[in-house]
Write a structure and sequence with these properties.
alpha+beta; 9 strands; about 250 residues; homodimer; Arc Repressor Mutant, subunit A; Chorismate lyase
């Protein structure tokens, strides 16, 4: 089947635009139209070259352009895929943190600390952290943003009996798990994370630059140490248009 | 510390109500008020018995009542926990299906099949399923409900070149993965699931008995066979008030 038969404008050999530029543009349009969605795996290079009626070298030049533009990515042994335009951390599948996942994906984020102070937590939080009512904890509220804007509002409550002085850490640059494990030598072992959809409250809407009532991805977490003591409770609200939680799962 | 010191009405020995009934009621109130939230781990039995100033036998009788009521559950070797009132499938962590997760948790659901027919899928779905445009697939639309009401709307597109005749299966009782693996002998190997929050469209709102625009948990999935061929694409909308996706995660 040729590109023409698939309803695409054909490759034109009698125009000054180079063939590989025309092919890049065809693929770009398919991605832009959604016909080739995120994670779509392209056919093999020989198949595509045949489809476009060009040499493999020409095809490869077109693909290289799109890879450089960030529209395609190649995975060794698996093929060429359309890139996702949203950030896709695997935080439902692995006990990594957003900042660790951003780092591993090469996503650059900035952190704004909105609160970093000792407070008495709400009673349900105290209960989940195994603390007597009235015991102070660190309340850490942060907004993480990419160059597109805010992607997550994080509210953590951290046991300070395990982390004396943590309220003096600068969390603009330090990560919470990094500080717990590195500075305090705590052995983070397990966590329970639950995910749900919520309507943005005024505070969440303001932090994520969304309309009040807009749907936001909500994540609640309790983190436990190797000795089974809870160390941290968090509420996280995620801008669902900019970040999708992803799991790559294996059957049984 | 006694129950009184924690701000609870004390155990009264000069009233006709049995002590263990009073203790059950105290705990019930703490759970109802949210002071002891879902997944809160109660103190050990000796500690609680001392706190209430009763024998371990009396305490155990009170706990047994609450376990029978479904408010508490005991996990061997870990302790006694407050039960969650929402269903919490681990579908972000494991490649199980909602129906498998419901079955393992003892949640009884009913399935209503809204569509089970061969259709030509939208182009992005065809692309993700590695199908030429125009190839028909099974479109299977189902609503799963518990006795509280609908919990999920599922829309699956299944490759029929791998599953000839699948449109004649009665999915009111059969599960999709069960049919793919059992009837067709397919080896389901991996899946990519992404999670996000969306506003309920009119169709989703109607199916889940929610207001239009209400936040719903959205899940998108592509399932692959052992030979890496995609077999199924799905969109799932979850009633977030009735079902929270949960992951129990282990660090590194």
């Amino acid at each position: 089947m040729t590109a023409d038969e698939r309803g695409l404008p054909g490759i034109q050999r009698d125009v000054p635009t180079a063939i590989h530029v025309q092919i890049s543009e065809h693929i770009r349009l398919r991605i832009a139209s959604g016909e080739w969605p995120a994670h779509y795996r392209l056919k093999s290079e020989p198949e595509l070259a045949q489809e476009f009626g060009v040499s493999r070298g020409t095809l490869r030049r077109a693909l290289t352009t799109l890879i450089e533009e960030g529209l395609l990515r190649q995975v060794r042994g698996r093929g060429t895929f359309v890139t996702s335009t949203t950030i896709e951390p695997a935080i439902a599948q692995k006990l990594s943190t957003l900042s660790e996942d951003f780092a591993s994906q090469g996503v650059v984020t900035t952190t704004t600390v909105r609160e970093c102070a000792l407070i008495v937590p709400p009673k349900p939080v105290a209960a989940l952290l195994d603390l007597a009512a009235g015991t102070p904890v660190l309340s850490l509220t942060r907004v993480r943003a990419t160059d597109e804007g805010p992607v997550a509002l994080l509210s953590n409550f951290v046991r300070t009996d395990l982390t004396p002085g943590i309220e003096r850490v600068d969390f603009t640059s330090a990560s919470l798990f990094g500080v717990l494990e590195g500075t305090y030598g705590l052995k983070i072992a397990t966590a329970r994370r639950t995910f749900g959809a919520e309507a943005a409250t005024p505070a969440v809407a303001e932090a994520l630059a969304l309309d009040e009532g807009a749907p936001v991805q909500y994540l609640q977490q309790v983190t436990y140490l190797a000795d089974d003591r809870p160390v941290e409770y968090s509420d996280v609200w995620i801008h669902s248009g900019r970040l999708r939680v992803t799991s790559l799962l294996v059957r049984r």
